[in-house]
Design goal:
Layout lengths: L4 H26 L8 H24 L3 H22 L11 H11 L2 H23 L16 H80 L4 H28 L7 E4 H14 L7 E4 L2 H4 L2 E4 L1 H17 L5 E9 L5 E7 L6 H5 L16 H11 L3 E7 L3 E8 L6 H10 L1
Parallel strand pairs: 2-4
Antiparallel strand pairs: 1-3, 4-5, 5-7, 6-7
Helix pairs in contact: 1-2, 1-4, 2-3, 3-4, 3-5, 4-5, 4-6, 5-6, 6-7, 8-10, 10-12
Length: about 425
């Protein structure tokens, strides 16, 4: 996980709050007893912590390597906590619980692995301190802190603390993992809403424009075709009229897609053999010259014979747009692979994969936005229509792409209300 600048600031603020809270608690306790911890060394540690926080804020303000800063903060904090545990008497106090703050911070700011590493270092530091105090290798900070304890109690307390450290690391990792997933889902949902808003706006605009343009355009195209047949034309004039007719057809197709976005109209649903619908679409592409000899079509779609309850026109449009998009991505030729799959939940999965130029991460972000196109003379509506059709069936689209290696679209359609069993019978009977 990449350490972000906001994480570092959060880390610094949390440690300041924690140290200040401990300082206030110690001052309150010291008013009623003198048996807690030595005051002067404790205040020195607190002052050192504040000074380090100032240094961390400077690095936060002017530095760029936030991952290194987070590791340095965690390491110094572990040493400070160990020093605080030492002056408080080791096992005589309960300040070793402060290790947990560093463990949780490592999970949030760094990574899951860093949380376990921090827990392990905490266990080693605490174990060395306790063993050193018990065996006399490390003298007690104050003679009054010495308390006779059995070796069994020492070992039990150490293992209890170690278990607590790793338990907190696991719990923190689970919670931070859930938060990260929730944050990703929220971002994805916001992107979905943004795209849907743009689709709605495109639909409203298209409905207004289409009705104003379609009828005059049809009249112009018809008049040109009549004149083309009646007038004696030379080759250049005939080519110009052909261009007018071709462009009229292209604009008319754009208008039809506009209208389809705005209001798809009433649709008839029945059982479809998706393999036959796809085969018909590929035949049309071959007849139109889009799918010529430089392309190869592979996949299991000819043998799969997958059935689905839907509208033939929608799936024909969906297959057409995906295939055209794949062919445009392979200007020098290549392989288009189409597979049909049926998962355990009876959902139908359709996979379109090409060996074209692929997409950058920025292109993937804008892929389903109206009027965004990656191709010359593209209208930026094909994949928008695909997205709307998939949304109509409450399905989902997954896109994988790598520059220079191609793109893969996987469309998942859930079982229709007619029932998964009926779908299964229809597929097996087809």
């Amino acid at each position: 996980m990449k350490t972000q600048k906001s994480h570092i600031l959060w880390y610094i603020l949390i440690r300041l709050i924690a140290v200040t809270s401990i300082l206030v608690a110690v001052v309150i306790i010291q008013h009623s007893t003198t048996d807690f911890i030595p005051l002067i060394p404790f205040y020195y540690l607190v002052l050192l912590t504040y000074l380090l926080s100032v240094v961390y804020l400077g690095l936060y303000r002017f530095g760029k390597r936030y991952d290194i800063q987070a590791r340095l903060q965690t390491g110094f904090d572990l040493l400070l906590v160990t020093a605080l545990v030492y002056i408080s008497g080791g096992l005589s106090g309960s300040l070793y619980l402060l290790y947990i703050i560093s463990i949780v911070a490592a999970s949030i700011v760094l990574s899951n692995r860093a949380a376990y590493v921090t827990a392990g270092i905490s266990a080693v530091l605490f174990g060395l301190l306790v063993d050193g105090l018990y065996f006399g290798v490390i003298p007690y900070f104050s003679v009054e802190q010495y308390t006779e304890r059995s070796l069994g109690l020492i070992i039990f307390t150490m293992f209890l603390a170690w278990g607590l450290f790793f338990l907190m690391a696991a719990l923190a990792n689970y919670l931070t993992g859930s938060l990260r997933k929730a944050r990703e889902e929220l971002r994805r949902a916001e992107k979905e809403l943004e795209i849907r808003d743009r689709l709605a706006n495109a639909g409203r605009i298209s409905a207004q424009l289409a009705h104003e343009i379609r009828n005059p355009l049809a009249a112009i195209s018809g008049a040109i075709q009549v004149l083309r047949g009646d007038l004696p034309l030379d080759d250049d004039q005939r080519k110009l009229m052909d261009m007018v007719v071709q462009e009229s057809v292209r604009v008319s197709q754009s208008i039809e897609q506009f209208l389809d976005l705005a209001s798809p109209g009433r649709l008839d649903f029945h059982w479809l053999n998706l393999s036959e619908v796809l085969d018909e679409t590929l035949t049309l592409l071959k007849a139109g010259g889009d799918l010529d000899g430089q392309f190869q079509v592979d996949g299991n779609f000819r043998e799969a014979r997958v059935g689905y309850y839907g509208n033939a026109g929608q799936f024909r449009q969906l297959f057409w747009n995906l295939a055209k998009n794949a062919l445009k991505a392979m200007p020098a030729g290549g392989t288009l692979t189409v597979d049909f799959l049926l998962d355990k939940k009876k959902a139908v999965r359709i996979r379109f994969a090409d060996t074209g130029r692929g997409m950058t991460s920025e292109e993937r972000q804008h892929l389903f936005e109206p009027f965004f196109t990656r191709f010359e003379n593209g209208r930026g509506l094909g994949l928008v229509v695909v997205r709307r059709i998939v949304d109509d069936y409450e399905g989902r689209i997954e896109v994988r792409s790598e520059v220079g290696r191609g793109t893969e679209f996987t469309l998942t359609f859930p079982p229709r209300e007619a029932g998964a069993k009926a779908a299964s019978r229809h597929i097996s009977a087809s």
